[in-house]
What we know:
By secondary structure, this protein is α/β, with parallel strands linked by helices. 49% of the residues lie in helices and 14% in strands. It has two domains: 200 residues, no CATH class; 74 residues, no CATH class. It starts with 8 loop residues before the first helix and ends with a helix.
Amino acid sequence: MDLLDPRVDFVFKRIFGSENNKDVLLAFLNSIFIEAGETPLTEIILMNPYTDKDDPLDKQSIFDVYAKTSEGKLIDIEMQLFNKYDIEKRTLFYWSKRYASQLSEGDKYPELKKCVTINILNYSFLKNDQYHNVFHLREDKTGIALIDDIEVHFLELPKLSERIVPSEGGLINWLLFLKGAHTSQWEVLKMNEPSLEKAMDTLQYLSQDSEARRLYEARQKYLHDEASMMESAMQAGMKAGMEEGMKAGKEAGLQEGMKTGIREVAENMLRLNLDIATISKATGLTEQEIANLKK
């Protein structure tokens, strides 16, 4: 039997975002927080539990897992199968919306609770070898925290070697399971982390359920198509820009033509509504130069 891929957000939410599996979510979150040197949680409340109304093809369906602690701290867990190229800005945007949404008219700022975002990425993003990176808001020179309300985790699955066999409990066991560790390794993983057994049982159950597999395949196709469209849009923008640059190069010389080509690439990417940070990475232009082109 081929197992479903737990990195597909639809499956991830079925495993970690259902009321029946709150204990699994709690154990997973505690493995993250303990590795980050934080106090483990004792209770978790699901804010958007999985229901049969979560349609894999409905853009309104949310496959993040939203939870709240008994103290009111908010936690958002998102599984990203493909690189959308703007994860930093998307993270801050959605973190800020969740943080601000806590206050209604007349509420006071002290009522705001800490918001934690946990991004599980199926691609490498940060320029280091750590599979688990944690960000807070601190002063550059002294490291003094301004406030503890913002906390962002990035868990990058490709930074884990597939040949790793953990000898103790901890987050790495959960991440190897999510990455698709062969079932021959499952016995070791669940010996290290007993709560993994229920996650594994859930994945096996879903993999045998024909309706769950149908929904999974629909979601998988949707995610692949979405990633392909974004990649094609970026390639088309770069190709069109380079063609314009080559034409300009014949008239204005190679160096000037290359500059023109890069500007054309940036302009085409702007027309495709790609964000400025992504365009800057792709072209080498500064964000100010791109902003000027946008005007």
